[in-house]
Specification:
single chain; two-stranded antiparallel sheet; about 50% helix; XnlR_reg_dom
């Protein structure tokens, strides 16, 4: 069955596309999908019929109604937490510091005040929009190809494309993989057209609405779908899908190392895939805790003994080495011989360090937290950086390629440092920051301490580190959808520094 893809329009809105009617499909003709009769059938005065859905689950009317309800929830959530009209009145003397011109210039350059700004990360050079999806012909599935070409390297938890194609052609697996393929199509469509497809979203939701056996593939599907929803600012629904993915992963006990062996079908590649799925769930859970401002880590305290992911080159080649444990990674400083760990492992380490550092201080800090933050939180974050081997300190290779996992790791530890130190620094908060959905809650009072300069310098150093990452000479700005919120916190701190602290050309 073919599913037409909505073409890109100059106004940015994706038009809905429909399935071909039975008459056009039997003759392999392009069908406009109009109901009750397509143009071809109308011109030929023929009866026009459409095949009923074979997927079951919610029909289109029910799916449309469900999206309408979610839109109401999103609008209520956004209006209560992000509306500029509800900005606090504190620091009224500073409210005019950030002029409209500077805000417009900043937004034009970085897009941090625009919930839809993540769309700007899509490459400007895109392949032609495919006229159809061919799910039963993996070699000619343009949207799956786009997924692997443009997205997979940011969050590499699915099987590599060659291996995925083999599983997809296996009759024992194709039924299990259909929901995941639909979700990959949705992500691939974003890259090929730079638009959101309601048609493909309907397909994903219909697949997920079916009663299905407990299957780790559904964890992958909901995790990927959650990222796509977050990308297009459907934050309430993104969190809902993430919560379902976490719940199923915990029910399956994916946090135990035995899970990979039990469900790996004697394939080292599939075992590695399940390990990566758990750890990517762990990482994205932390991203949500930070970017949504909840600081509620659903899985951070889960006692997991899942072994660490291997190198990306090993995963892509299928040459999976003996896996390494988290305990070995934590004791790498005392290892008798040099042991290499993957970028994925160091990203996991960065998330664990950031979570531990954040846990040392209360969500709303007070003056008395100043010394403890410097003694405890800083030592945790600095420890991660100091233990990096030389080949992991540099995000860009000699050939100009970006290690996207290390890019995220460095961004994460820096944004954690900014978030911890700014409330105690000399970089004042301004109510206008609430325009950004990624803004942090400011302190309720002036927290000036004896160590205020130390906190200020820590923030500025972290901001400078972020800027160096963003200034890497890449062909295009093309990173994970979570990059914008990570960068925005540093940008807001820099804007405060430019207004209240820095003078001249010092940046």
């Amino acid at each position: 069955m073919t599913t037409p893809v909505a073409p890109a329009h100059s106004n940015g809105a994706a038009s809905r596309s429909s399935l071909a009617c039975l008459s056009c499909r039997s003759r392999h003709l392009k069908c406009d999908g109009k109901r009750p009769r397509c143009d071809r059938c109308a011109a030929a005065a023929k009866e026009c019929n459409y095949a009923p859905s074979r997927r079951g689950g919610l029909d289109r009317v029910a799916l449309a109604e469900r999206r309408k309800r979610l839109a109401v929830v999103n609008s209520v959530g956004n209006s209560s937490s992000e509306s500029p009209t509800s900005l606090p009145s504190q620091q009224s003397s500073d409210s005019q510091i950030f002029g409209q011109d500077s805000l417009a210039e900043l937004n034009h350059g970085l897009g941090i005040f625009d919930d839809g700004s993540l769309e700007n990360q899509i490459p400007t050079s895109v392949p032609p929009v495919p006229s159809t999806i061919r799910p039963d012909d993996p070699k000619h599935d343009a949207l799956t190809n786009a997924y692997y070409t443009d997205f997979h390297k940011f969050h590499p938890f699915l099987l590599p494309q060659e291996q995925f194609t083999r599983f997809r052609q296996d009759p024992n697996w194709i039924g299990r993989l259909r929901p995941l393929i639909s979700t990959m199509h949705l992500v691939g469509h974003i890259y090929t057209t730079r638009t959101w497809s309601s048609e493909l979203q309907d397909d994903v939701e219909s697949q997920l609405s079916e009663p299905a056996p407990i299957d780790p593939v559904i964890v992958q599907c909901r995790l990927l779908y959650s990222i796509a929803l977050f990308w297009y600012s459907h934050k309430m629904e993104a969190k809902y899908q993430m919560d379902l993915a976490v719940r199923l992963a915990l029910d399956l006990r994916m946090f135990q190392k035995e899970f990979a062996a039990t469900h790996g079908a004697e394939s080292t590649m599939l075992m590695e895939c399940w390990r990566r799925t758990w750890w990517m769930l762990y990482i994205i859970d932390a991203y949500y805790a930070g970017t949504l401002g909840t600081m509620n880590f659903a899985v951070v305290d889960v006692d997991s003994n899942v072994e660490l992911p291997c190198m990306e080159s090993e995963y892509e080649s299928g040459d999976i080495p003996e896996s390494q444990s988290l305990e070995e990674f934590d004791l790498r400083e005392f290892a008798s011989e040099d042991t290499s760990y993957s970028s994925f492992a160091y990203l996991i380490g960065a998330v664990r360090c950031a979570a531990l550092a954040i846990s040392t201080t209360p969500r709303l800090v007070a003056r008395e937290d100043s010394t403890r933050m410097i003694e405890e939180a800083d030592s945790i974050i600095d420890g991660w950086s100091l233990l990096l081997p030389e080949d992991r300190r540099h995000v860009m290779s000699k050939t100009g390629e970006i290690d996207e996992l290390m890019f995220q790791a460095h961004l994460l530890v820096n944004v954690a440092s900014i978030g911890l130190h700014r409330p105690l620094s000399d970089l004042r908060f301004n109510p206008v920051e609430y325009i950004s959905s990624c803004a942090r809650e400011p302190p309720q009072e002036n927290l000036e301490t004896e160590l205020i300069n130390v906190h200020t310098v820590r923030v500025l150093r972290a901001v400078q580190a972020q800027l160096r990452l963003l200034a890497l000479p890449t062909e295009r700005f093309h990173h994970t959808p979570f990059t914008t919120c990570m960068v925005s916190e540093g940008t807001l701190a820099l804007l405060s520094a430019c207004s209240f602290l820095l003078k001249g050309n010092i940046v």
